[in-house]
Design goal:
Elements: H1 2-24, E1 31-40, E2 51-54, E3 60-62, E4 68-74, E5 78-83, E6 86-92, E7 101-108, H2 126-135, H3 142-149, H4 152-161, H5 166-182, H6 195-207
Parallel strand pairs: 1-7
Antiparallel strand pairs: 1-4, 2-3, 2-5, 5-6
Length: about 210
């Protein structure tokens, strides 16, 4: 009977020690931060804009203009490196790494793209070239579009035709209220008695602005 009690006690002690070790482990032990640089394999120059993704997970970063990146992953994950003009690379993070920080230099190999050939031929005849030079419409480039959009006459025409926005309407209303408040309690002056208006009228009459044009 005593031996059975000792056997049960020993089993309970072993189970308790195993449970304590299981719960005593650090839950963040497998997390690791990868700090690295993406460089070209032939000249060791920084490769900016490399997309670094954790495979099969919706997480990733992009390398800086100096090729530097930093990403947090789990030990055993696989990092995928991709950039325009370079071959895609993968790096498997070892599971037996010590600590929570790791430095990595990823070398990128340039990839060659072959485009289909393009044949450029001149117009067949002189008459067709003359017709195309005179009648074909060449679309405006960005500079010509900007010049047309900032033309003074165009902007003036738009200012006269487009309706006022809320800010302009509010400013016009406040100006009218200010004029009415200035002559509150008295009659507002009329331009028919203004010497300046009469002077402008005589100058326009001398120039012939009111003559009938044929």
């Amino acid at each position: 009977m005593l031996s059975k009690i000792w056997s049960y006690s020993l089993v309970l002690i072993c189970f308790s020690l195993f449970t304590f070790n299981s719960y005593g482990q650090d839950p963040f032990e497998n997390i690791i931060q990868i700090n690295g640089v993406t460089m070209t394999a032939d000249s060791l120059r920084a490769v900016p804009g490399v997309v670094v993704l954790v495979k099969n997970k919706n997480r990733g970063v992009e390398s800086s203009p100096m090729g530097v990146f930093s990403i947090v992953a789990y030990k055993g994950d696989t990092l995928q490196f991709s950039a325009i003009g370079f071959r895609s690379k993968e790096y498997a993070i070892p599971k037996d790494l010590k600590g929570h920080y790791f430095s990595l230099i990823q070398l990128m190999v340039q990839d060659t793209f072959y485009l289909p050939e393009t044949i450029i031929r001149a117009l067949p005849t002189k008459e067709q070239f003359e017709y195309a030079f005179r009648y074909w419409t060449v679309p405006d480039d960005a500079l010509e579009k900007a010049r047309k959009n900032t033309d003074a006459l165009t902007l003036r025409a738009l200012a006269y035709t487009l309706p006022r926005d809320g800010r302009e309407s509010q400013a016009m209303y406040q100006q009218m209220e200010s004029i009415q408040a200035t002559y509150y309690g008295q009659r507002a002056p009329m331009n028919i008695f203004s010497p300046l208006s009469w002077g402008e009228f005589f100058e326009a009459w001398k120039r012939g602005d009111y003559r009938k044009r044929r």
